[in-house]
Amino acid sequence: MSTPHHELGEFLRRARASREPEQTGLLPDGRIRRVPGLRREEVALLAGVSTDYYTRLEQGRKLTPSTQVVDALIRALDLDEAGEVYLHALLDAASAPATRTRPMVQRARSGLHQLLDSFTTQPALILGRRTDVLASNTLARALFADFDSMPASHRNYARWMFLDEGARSLFIDWEDQARNAVEALRLDSASASDDRGLHELVGELSIASPEFRRWWSAHRVHQRTHGVKRLDHPVIGEVSLQFESLSLPGDASQVLYIYTTEPGSDSQAALALLASWIQKAPSKACAHRKTSPGQRTLTTAVQLSLRGIPQRRTQSSTSPRSRAGSSPGMS
Fold first, then answer.
1. Element (H, E) at 136
2. pLDDT tens track for 229-279
3. Long-range Cβ pairs for the range 83-86 (8 Å, 24+)
4. Distance CA 143, CA 160 (A)
5. Among 110, 121, 257, 299, which is most exposed with the fewest C-beta within 10 angstroms?
6. CA 246, CA 255: separation in Å to the nearest integer?
7. Rounded distance between C-alpha atoms, residue 327 and residue 322, angstroms
8. What share of the chain is helix, strand, coil (3-state, %, to 5)?
9. Which residues pair with 308 in a beta bridge?
10. pLDDT tens, 275-299?
11. Cβ–Cβ under 8 Å, residues 266 and 275
């Protein structure tokens, strides 16, 4: 990772390249466009600044634009809420003294652990800085991954998403979910440019994952406030989950994610079945990351039972009570 001024320049350049000239109201000038998006002079014109000044911003020069200029750039580049938050965070970081620290270890309060444990029919977890997984309830560990059993340095959502094969097989739309994770991490990075742990995480993932490296360099940002996740779970099959995120009082960098299903849906029935199983056998709360033949039979049996179809006994058939497991992955 580089300086906030350089990151600001890269973000402006990427935002400019993604802006369609036809959407700005500028009249065509007859010149052939050799690159996508707006030209620098067009952004400068829309923002009411000189081309030289805007060019220096993109070059990562140590400039401090006024509030009026920042607002004009937001309008000229048509930034969404996440882009606006990211731009302001980069400018704040650029004006702060340069340091390189390792922030204090984040921990979820004991009351928050108790709160998560009280959710017996909704998976829930808490993410902190760098998408570290600070807490999760039993149902989340059964549905996603058993983060509690991982080494402390591995309890990270983005790291799990890219380096654990279980995550790739768990998410039906893994590419979309993984890209969202990168863009959310990019958004968080603007206010943590001096975080050594963040630098180490980005370095590790950039080396290990070509997808992460490509999406990180795109400088796109995403704010995870709510959404849908579609899973192909090795035990209960396909489920569709809606999630809401809530910043926690006392530390806004800790975010609670709660997952629900549509009332009366197959997904609700499947999740209820998983919750019932783990309440009866808490030691078997997590499904294996890689699906075995026995698990495939169990998944099929669960799906058939949800549809009210009688199950046929086979030699390889198993029941939740007869199998121990671990979980495939998280949010």
1. strand 133-136
2. 999 999 999 999 999 999 998 888 899 999 999 999 999 999 999 999 888
3. 83/15, 83/221, 85/187, 85/190, 85/221, 85/223, 86/11, 86/186, 86/187, 86/190, 86/221
4. 14
5. 110
6. 5
7. 16
8. 50, 15, 35
9. none
10. 998 887 654 445 434 443 333 333 4
11. no
